[in-house]
């Protein structure tokens, strides 16, 4: 039996210690042991899809527009389903705030305004 706390984001009991922080393998949430989740309300990332629906780590989304992959000749077609997204802080260049893996393309970042919740 593990003495690690359950994940504060999804309540999973399958957490593990990774150096100085705890990690949840189910939702990807990372936190410092002993942190009070209520004290870190400002650290919570928020993203909304093209229709205004809130997105969370682990959600599946569908692409609503053909997207060219920068640095490649590949295109992500409309209707492509992307599973297990992860919210990240948007970068300054394009506001890419979703980390994901697209089948046939690989790992990349997407902007939430070009997807809808599946």
From TrEMBL:
Which Gene3D superfamilies does this chain map to? Answer: 2.20.25.10, SH3 Domains
Matching entries from InterPro entries are given as: YjdM, YjdM_C, YjdM_N
The family database entries (NCBIfam families) matched by this protein are listed as: phnA
Q: Which domain of life is it from?
A: Bacteria
Can you give the residue ranges of the Protein YjdM N-terminal domain?
4-31
Task: Please give the SUPFAM superfamilies that the UniProt record associates with this protein.
Answer: Prokaryotic SH3-related domain (SSF82057), Zinc beta-ribbon (SSF57783)
Q: Name the species this protein comes from.
A: Halomonas salipaludis
Protein name as catalogued:
Alkylphosphonate utilization protein
Where the record annotates domain Protein YjdM C-terminal, the positions are 48-118
> What family classification does the UniProt entry report for this protein?
Belongs to the YjdM family.
């Amino acid at each position: 039996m593990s003495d690690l706390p359950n994940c504060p984001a999804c309540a999973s009991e399958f957490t593990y210690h990774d150096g100085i922080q705890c990690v949840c393998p189910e939702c990807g949430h990372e936190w410092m042991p002993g942190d009070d989740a209520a004290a870190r309300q400002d650290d919570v990332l928020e993203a909304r899809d093209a229709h205004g629906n809130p997105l969370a780590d682990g959600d599946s989304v569908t692409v609503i527009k053909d997207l060219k992959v920068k640095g490649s000749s590949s295109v992500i077609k409309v209707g492509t389903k992307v599973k297990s997204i992860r919210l990240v802080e948007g970068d300054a260049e394009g506001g890419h705030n979703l980390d994901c893996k697209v089948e046939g393309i690989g790992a990349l970042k997407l902007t939430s305004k070009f997807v809808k919740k599946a």
